[in-house]
Design goal:
binds magnesium ion; binds adenosine-5'-triphosphate; five-stranded mixed beta sheet; globular; 30% helix; alpha/beta
């Protein structure tokens, strides 16, 4: 079959009576019902003057309605999901920056987004879940009078923007990424192919649905194979195993900090794990420490498939393959969709095995950041490759390993230090369960090495023990001058550990 290049076509992959969306304990929503909900929503928006190319901001809690609204809105207009935990000032910035035509917010929710929209004169539609008709079903109630119907009605075309998101803001201020229908469908297809999804697969989505990982890998990729996804209200390690027992998923995807939290509760849930075998566990969005991968594989008796994704690529760039092909700890696998190359500072390819910047090219990659000529001039090479800002190496077999992020390199008086290299050593200490190495300002050196760590439950270690351990394994200039032992390391909205800005957050700058 011809691969879908629009969301309207993508949701045609499932049989009428097959389940598309569900929620733990909820009534399943069939593909036929999802298609009907999509058609109705597009018609309602069109009747309100909102059509192809118009942006609809979506502020909803995680769950099946968020998944369904994202799809239904993007099928005929442009979805712009926003983090519901933003404050009023942030909503004002994003709603204005996005040039949104409508805000969809949860019925009865006191989100500041609604008040901000009113202030900006932006129409608001309240989404009321109708779970009795199937998980994710909803009706929209418009507060304002109907505008003139749009002339740009009906399903969106392949080159229309389906989704607008901001990057996570790990290395700089978040940038706006417009993704076409082709971009998101290509990424969904690439993930489906790498993970061999079929109509038999059942996903358990714990990823937030205002970021690319959850939207594409969590929702669209399995749906594009006619498979189903059960949508949780958001990650919760205490509820994870009850959901698992209820939904009986064949897989789930998460970020490393989630896997670690799940492992922390695995011991007391061994029976649930034993009676719910997983086909695989997927990890993406930041590097998975090899120790965590090993423990996950042992605990769940399932392969852990690490993948490499970014907003600008509509998520996936590389993925480890499923057995019988080998997957490796510390590698993000093979190019899984776009072409991948490693280049030097001048943009020229480096010999195999050497380190350089990872660049990509493919139908899942955005055309450019919005309203950001400066970032675009830096982001693309003359040959049209997109510069990821990540450093890595390709093995002769084509396995990609990420060695760091260009912007995160610590410059200690001219000595360049890869924070990942230090992380890897500290993670080898038996007492360390999480670790982030980062730059802290230094009077004379400019920057010096610092690390924040979380110890394993019930284990004690002092800063000097960890430093001593590092000193035996790292050149003196790489040993963190300061190691903070914390109960928790501050994370970004996606659950990512952020090196940049951490010194300020932890009072070291
Ligand atoms: P910003 O671009 O605003 O600084 P961000 O890059 O964190 O934020 P995302 O698009 O959410 O925003 O994340 C993409 C980045 O995440 C990649 O460029 C890479 O650095 C990192 N990443 C993703 N998957 C992996 C992985 N498996 N291993 C290591 N790093 C990863
Ligand atoms: Mg980035």
């Amino acid at each position: 079959p011809v691969a879908a290049t629009t969301l309207y076509d993508l949701i045609r992959a499932g049989d009428d009576a097959a389940t598309a969306l569900s929620s733990p304990g909820g009534v399943p929503l069939t593909f036929q019902a999802l298609r009907a909900l999509t058609d109705r929503t597009v018609a309602e928006l069109n009747a309100r003057g909102i059509g192809r190319g118009d942006r609809v901001a979506i502020v909803l809690p995680n769950g099946p309605e968020m998944a369904a609204a994202f799809i239904a809105v993007a099928a005929g207009t442009t979805s712009a999901p926003l983090n519901p935990s933003y404050k009023a000032d942030e909503f004002e910035f994003y709603l204005t920056d996005l040039n949104a035509k409508l805000l969809i917010a949860a019925d009865g929710s006191a989100t500041p987004a609604a008040a901000v929209a009113e202030k900006l004169g932006l129409p608001v539609a309240r989404l009321k879940p109708t779970p009795e008709e199937g998980a994710g079903s909803f009706t929209l109630a418009f507060a304002d009078e109907a505008a003139e119907p749009t002339a740009k009605g009906g399903p969106a075309a392949s080159e229309d923007i389906a989704l607008v998101l901001h990057t996570s803001g790990t290395t700089s201020r978040p940038k706006i990424v417009p993704l076409t229908q082709t971009n998101v469908c290509a990424s969904a297809r690439n993930i489906r192919t790498a993970l061999q999804f079929t109509a038999e697969d059942r996903g358990l989505n714990i990823m937030p649905l205002f970021h690319i990982h959850g939207l594409i890998a969590g929702i669209l990729a399995p749906l594009s194979a006619g498979g189903q996804v059960s949508c949780t209200p958001g990650f919760n390690a205490l509820k994870f195993f009850a959901w698992m027992d209820e939904v009986r998923p064949t897989w789930y995807t998460g970020v490393p900090t989630m896997h670690q939290a799940i492992l922390g509760r695995a011991g007391r849930n061994a029976e649930i794990i034993a009676r719910n075998p997983l086909r695989f566990i997927r990890s993406s969005s930041s590097s998975l420490p090899p120790q965590v991968m090993k423990e996950l594989e042992e605990t769940f008796s399932a392969p852990v498939i690490e993948a490499y994704g970014m907003t600008e690529a509509a998520h996936q760039m590389a993925s480890n393959p499923l057995p019988p092909k080998p997957h490796y700890a510390g590698s993000v696998g093979l190019a899984a969709g776009p072409e991948i190359a490693i280049v030097d500072l001048a943009g020229e390819p480096v010999p195999a095995g050497e380190t350089g910047e990872i660049v990509i090219r493919g139908d899942n990659v955005m055309k450019g950041y919005e309203n950001n000529d400066k970032a675009n001039a830096e982001a693309f090479t003359r040959q049209g490759w997109f510069r990821t800002g990540d450093q890595g190496t390709l093995s002769p077999e084509g396995y990609l390993s990420i060695t760091g992020r260009l912007k995160e390199i610590i410059n200690r008086g001219g000595e360049k230090i890869s924070p990942r290299e230090v992380d890897e050593i500290l993670m080898d200490h038996p007492a360390v369960s999480q670790c982030v190495t980062f730059a802290m300002p230094h009077d004379k050196l400019g920057e010096d090495v610092a690390a924040a760590i979380v110890l394993r439950e019930g284990v004690h270690a002092a800063e000097k023990d960890i430093k001593g351990f590092a000193s035996e394994r790292l050149a003196a200039f790489k040993v963190p001058a300061k190691i903070l032992i914390l109960d928790e390391i501050p994370k970004g909205a996606t659950g990512k550990l952020q090196r940049i800005g951490l010194a300020q957050k932890l009072g070291l700058a």
